[in-house]
Amino acid sequence: MSLKKKLIVLNTTIMLGLGSAFAIPSVKAESITDIQTQRTGIQSDISEAEQVIQQLKKEQSKMNTQIAQIESAMKENDQKIKDTKQEIKDTEKDIDSLKKEIKALEERIAKREEVLKERALSFQESGGDVEYLEVVLGSKSFGEFVNRVGAVATIVEADQQILSEQEADKADLEKKQATVEKKLQSLKDMEVELKGMQSQIKDQKAETVNMKAKIEKKESETEALKQSLENKDAGLEAQIASIRENIKKEEERKAAEKADLDRAAEEVSTSNSSSEGSSSSSNEESSSSSKGEASAKSSSKGESSSNSSKNSSAAKPAASKTETSSKPSSANTGSAITAGYKYIGNSTYKFGGGRTASDIANGLFDCSGFVAWAYKQAGVNLPASTDALKNAGRQVSKSQIQPGDLVFFNTYKTDGHVGIYVGGGKFIGSQSSTGVAIANMESGYWAGVFNGRVVRVN
User: Fold this and answer.
1) In Å, how far are 35, 81, 351, 361, 370 from 192, measured between CA atoms?
2) Helix count and strand count (H, E) for the chain
3) Contact 365, 358 (CB under 8 A)
4) 157 near 393, Cβ under 8 Å?
5) Number of Cβ within a 10 Å radius of residue 43
6) Which of 108, 235, 92 is nearest to 173 (CA)?
7) What is the 3-state secondary structure (H, E, C) of 186-252?
């Protein structure tokens, strides 16, 4: 083979080697860009998963607070039930004692009646076997007459005293019976209400615990998803590192091959330097080869710069997504209707609650306590009992109802529950099953127990 042909073959080999050396890394660089794009998407998903986890943790914290409030209310209601049962026992003892007093009183009354009957038979004003007049006129002397008249007067006065005592005992007896019976009935009603509320509160706790379990499950699933995404991201990162290492090795190998080819070309050129024609041809071809090499290098630099730009663009993390949520404007604290909105879904029914700073701070209210507190926020002082609230204003017809009116319901007793009408057939109040909430009084349970009493606060 002639020297010229050898040089052509040599230069062709060099060019092919250079082309291969720079083309392969370029292809792999594009693969890195694709993988980095995948990583950007995965990292965005990881960020979103972290946001979801944080939100779920907040919801868990809220649930834990609610459960603690419910357990506290249940504990206090349990104690109230125990106290009420004890009061019922004490009242029943009072009734037993009263029954003994009644029996003794009845015996005294019966004895008085016997005395009166005997006297009535002996001394009658008229119509009897022995009349007062006969007793008086039957005297044998004036002194006896006077004595008999005095005796009759004394007997009549004694009769009147007995009758007076008789009436007083009867009135006292009726009063004691009415008082004790009313107290006993009130305690029994309270016990029924407390047991009913306790049952509803237990249901509320069970529902809250169930919701918490669902949140924990969702958090666990999200954590698993996040871990899976992080593992995938780590795998892609390792893949990129492997590709870059392979590119480096490939470049080093091609550089070594190029160096060997350059040395071979130099040896061929040196061995044939005596021939000017060959040398000239060799120089021309070598010059051509140098230009080609320079062109290849320039091309490689362009591709490398382009790939570097792509990698830089792909490596930039996606703009973090921020959730925007429109928050309702803060409730007007001067309005009784909206004062309790902050407690919706964040309170617990407590019998006798809402009357201390601690209860209010922890969202513990009963129905009348809530109404009194809500109106106090509007600058109006109301009593904290359903019976007293019935007379806290003027009663209006159901057809005239308007927001702010008090509405009453027959639950465990007449007017056993009270709330504040908010409009649209709904009212806000502290219900034993939900705590502070807005309820529909036109359908369902509350429609069935609404008694039509509407009181407008003056």
Assistant:
1) 69, 9, 12, 28, 21
2) 8, 8
3) no
4) no
5) 16
6) 108
7) HHHHHHHHHHHHHHHHHHHHHHHHHHHHHHHHHHHHHHHHHHHHHHHHHHHHHHHHHHHHHHHHHHH
Please give the average per-residue pLDDT across 217-237, as a whole number.
84
282 has pLDDT over 50? no
Residue 301 has pLDDT above 60, yes or no: no
Rounded CA separation 89/51 (Å)? 57
Cα four-point dihedral sign 198, 201, 205, 206: positive
Higher pLDDT, 415 or 171: 415
Closest among 328, 415, 418, 410 to 382, alpha carbons compared: 418
d(CA 201, CA 71): 9
Residue 58 in 3-state DSSP?
helix
Q: Are 347 and 430 in contact (CB under 8 A)?
A: yes
Residue of 414, 451, 419 lying closest to 435 (CA atoms): 419
Please count the other Cβ atoms lying within 10 Å of the Cβ belonging to residue 348: 31
Q: Tokens 């056993």 label which residue?
A: 416
d(CA 163, CA 141): 33
What is d(CA 94, CA 198) in angstroms, rounded to the nearest whole number? 28
CA dihedral of residues 424, 430, 436, 440 (deg, nearest 10)? -30
Q: Decide: 257 and 16 in contact? Cβ < 8 Å.
A: no
Identity of residue 73: A
Distance CA 194, CA 18 (A): 91
Q: C-alpha 185: how far from its chain's center?
A: 36
pLDDT of residue 126 exceeding 80: no
3-state secondary structure of 131: strand
Do 325 and 51 touch, CB atoms closer than 8 A? Answer: no
Tell me the C-alpha distance between 167 and 172, whole Å. 9
Torsion of CA 364, 367, 372, 374, to 10 degrees: 70
In sequence order, the β-bridge partners of residue 419 are 407
Residue 143, Cβ density class (10 Å: 0-12 exposed, 13-18 middle, ≥19 buried): exposed
SS3 420: strand
| Inter-residue contact 11 to 265 (CB < 8 Å) | yes
> Residue 227: phi, psi to the nearest 5?
-60, -40
Q: Is the pLDDT of residue 436 over 80?
A: yes
- What element of type H or E holds 138? none
The residue to which tokens 């034993």 are assigned? 432
Sign of CA dihedral 146, 147, 148, 154: positive
Q: What is residue 411's three-state secondary structure?
A: coil
Q: Which two tokens stand for residue 125?
A: 């004003």
